[in-house]
Amino acid sequence: MTDTAPAIVTAAILVIGDEILSGRTKDKNIGYIAEYCTAIGIDVREVRVVPDIEDEIVAAVRALSDRYDHVFSTGGIGPTHDDITADAMAKAFGVNIDHDPRAVAILTEHYGAASLNEARLRMARIPSGASLIDNPVSKAPGFTIRNVHVMAGVPTIMQAMLDAVTATIPTGTKMLSATVPASMGEGRIAAGLGAIQGDFPDVAIGSYPKMLDGGFATDIVLRSRDAGRLAEAVRAVEGLIASLLVTPR
Predict the structure, then answer these.
(1) N or C: which end of the chain has fewer CB within 10 A?
(2) What are the E-state strand segments in the chain?
(3) What is the DSSP letter of 225?
(4) Residue 204: beta bridge partners?
(5) 2 within 8 A of 230, measured Cβ to Cβ
(6) DSSP state at residue 67
(7) What is the pLDDT of residues 98-151, one digit of tens each?
(8) Beta bridge partners of 221
């Protein structure tokens, strides 16, 4: 193992919205955020989906904010009555919320003063002390309060906001991965994989069964921040698979 510990940055994803829990809307943000974070060196450790109920949002925000370096929140910052995320965030951190002059200016420029009605002005309500997240798609900004990044639920808008957020926060050492295919079921490799995992506690080893040509097969995925250790573990797994291929079932 290396003497220098890799930098680890952790995150959670908080998805807010009754429509996700009811199944009416199929979430497209969790996988995108998780893959995006993995690519830039942020470990997503937890995902929560909560309804449009203020107390439940508040409880989730407080728990996740305390536990992880970052929380990426999606949903509930639109112009309608059930968009209560901004108010819940203010309550979670014990701060006031009001129309933010910066957000009002952005929306005024986008809609024009005559078209900036009460509903649209709701999108300018920002908790005190929060910084704005740029929204190049539809202009209504998201915001960051402490370590919680509050973004829209619409995937195209969320993705643009995520680009803006991650450009401003520190990331960790990237997780590297490798996949070793095995043309056999998990039952044959389980004991050997367990032994290899014991030899490589710093490498995460997972097995994922699948069907291949009408029979059982397994993909073995190895993950580590240390390229050298990852390569060693891959060779060990490849050796295990090779030995099993010449061993009677």
Answers:
(1) C
(2) 10-16, 43-50, 70-74, 97-99, 125-127, 131-133, 142-145, 148-151, 176-182, 204-212, 215-224
(3) S
(4) 223
(5) no
(6) H
(7) 999 999 999 999 999 999 999 999 999 999 999 999 999 999 999 999 999 999
(8) 179, 206
CA geometry: angle at 109 spanning 104 and 114, to 5°?
Answer: 85
φ and ψ of 93, to 5 deg: -105, 5
Give the tokens for residue 217: 């097969």
d(CA 247, CA 157): 54
Task: List Cβ<8 Å contacts ≥24 apart for 231-236.
Answer: 232/200, 233/196, 233/200, 233/203, 233/205, 234/178, 234/180, 236/196, 236/199, 236/200
Helix (H, G, I), strand (E, B) or coil at 143: strand
Residue tagged 């996949």 (tokens)? 179
Within 8 A by CB and 6+ apart from 123, the residues are 77, 78, 79, 103, 107, 140, 141
